[in-house]
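Morning, I've got a small favour to ask if you have a moment. It would help a lot if you went through both lines with me. I owe you a coffee for this, so here goes:
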Amino acid sequence: MGKFRIESLLIEARRGPVYRAVDEDSGAPVALRMFHKGRFAPEGHWSRVPQHTAIGAILETGKLRGRPYAVMEWMDGPQLSLAGAGLDPQKVLPPLLDALSEAHNHGILHGHLRAHNIHMEERGPVIADYGFRYMDGDDEADRGFVAALAPEQIPGLKGSRPASDVYGLGVIAYALLAGRMPFEPGQDMSALVRAILEETPPPPPGPAPVVQVVMEMLAKDPHQRISTWNALDRFRAIRG
């Protein structure tokens, strides 16, 4: 596939397979994601995703026989969902908040931030899958996906905005503290949606100043939700 040679299938994801490939010019490994037709596509503005140590680089996008693909930076570190036990939110969240702020300043949303979108690399936590958009609204309408959505992202409401990324990161922070998501995806879909829209989860265990910021990240009203920069300043102040 051009200068990228596919070596092996990594995962057959809902939106399309992900392969380990090699850039034959440099010999470096890359992740190559193929998207199912009509389901997902790289954003036209993917190239405006800022360079940031906490954002995985998108190296190339295009189409192969009508199917969109994206070539992304190879990440060796485990997904946060697999490595979350014992991690300190005060260390994990600041670089991610800084990355979100930078991306939002460029007009770029992530839109589906979840623990498995974050890899724990040697340089720190790194967000993957920036620069993509959904082609329809229900491709990943499973409970695990919905449990990470902000209230405004629930189908039928207004959709993603910068505050939605803050909520997604708040779900991750809550899980780091509590060992579970604010609203468990094991319940049926209607109950899960109702909980996201109407219920306030109990505060997770942890230092009171940290818990307070996390709960402000999970505010139902996106207009009342703490901003990325304010959350970052608060975490920096807590760490001293």
Q: What stands out?
A: Residues 53 and 123 are 7 Å apart (CA to CA). Residues 134-141 have pLDDT under 50 and may be disordered. The radius of gyration is 18 Å. The longest strand covers residues 4-13.
